[in-house]
Amino acid sequence: MFGKDIYWYGVQAISLLESGKLHSPDNSPVFHIVAFLFRIFGVSDETLLFFQILTSVWLITSLFFARYLIFSVIEIPYQRINFIPSILVFVLGFLYPKQSWALGFLILSFGFSFPIRTISSLFATTSLSTSLKPSFSFPSSSLFRFRRRWFSSGLFFIFAFWFHPMVALLGLGVLVLYQIPEKFYPVFFCFVCLLPFFLPEDPSGRFYSDKAMFPLSAAFALAGLGILWDWGFLVFGRSELRFKKMRRAFAFFGFLLILPIFHFADIQYRILLSLILLTQIFIQWNVFQILVWTVSTGLWIFTMFTNPTSFRYSYEQMWIPGESMASVPNNGLLIAHHGFCEYYHFQFRKDCLSFEPDTKAISELPQGTEIYRAVYGIRYENLLASKDENKIPFFSSIQPLGEYQLVLEKDWKRYRTWLEKRNSKLLSIANSWKNPYKERPDFIKRKHSNGL
């Protein structure tokens, strides 16, 4: 399976089927789509794969239909509406399905709203230019009427917000930049440069300034040369005159993403992928564009084969340790890294948390059970040989399970404190994504408390 979050969709859908509510509160209806597919095809990895494929097909369909609407209005021959889907259709569809469904609706919203009126044009007395009228009919020609097109655009924008608010805000940001005259772009750039200094630096919040890594280097670390190639054509790519203002808005937005505005891996990377895909609406295909597409596809596929961990976890190595951990009688809650936790929860229907256990997790622990830790990245021999100042082993029990070692959480806490005192080289592994060491961030706690 590709996708680092795909089993989470399965966990949410199973919870819907079994209890009628989501395991983690979320207003997006995308999990209901997965639950519907589970009802038809059964709960399995294959159904999740079908959901990912369906998501990619949804993006392709949205792009084609939006291009049909736009190019029909500006009297481009029908042959030139055709396009070759960007490989980002599959990157987004497989890695970020929730975002992709919202992005599909946003693409349709852009398609129906084009040509987009500027604020100054709203005060003009002249009507739309005749060059913007449709050159051939649609099955329902009324869709091309200005007011109904904008009604449809607004409706699809609401759907985009419903599926993923971040995507809708992205679309709103593009429209704001579209309305701003280009002469004010330098002023806007200076404002964004100052923005990170006003954002909190607390990682427990959803929005915070992360200056630890330059965004483009972070993008390269996540996806290789493919993302840099696509970013370059997003920012420096040229466009025909009729699309120039919109493409300039996209390009400037992409240029702003070189600044460390938000935590890159969680927010800016996804925004960048969405921006690159949105530009596909306005591209007219020719020999040069096919060359650009070929290089982009080749670079992404190269990264996929040389660094597959950027797109998936090693799920094949999780079944045997997961099955053994699930069979421990008093295992009431397992603490493990993000990918293993979702896989374990989906496959074995056992509670798992990819954060340090907090008061809420401890209070929900079934009576007579313990909290266990799936240690990843530290060898069994290291854990076995670890002893405190009195030569007493830290771990009362260690179950070796390949790349994972199962220990009691209370023993692990004592061991990690010992590593901190010694400033051990293993501390960087113990305090990393491989072995969760932070409590659930505040925005996740708010979701559990308020459903928002």
From TrEMBL:
Q: Which domain of life is it from?
A: Bacteria
| Keywords annotated in UniProt | Membrane, Transmembrane, Transmembrane helix
Instruction: Locate the transmembrane regions by residue number.
Output: 48-70, 76-96, 150-177, 184-200, 212-237, 249-265, 271-302
Name of the protein in its database record: Uncharacterized protein
Upper classification of the organism: Bacteria, Pseudomonadati, Spirochaetota, Spirochaetia, Leptospirales
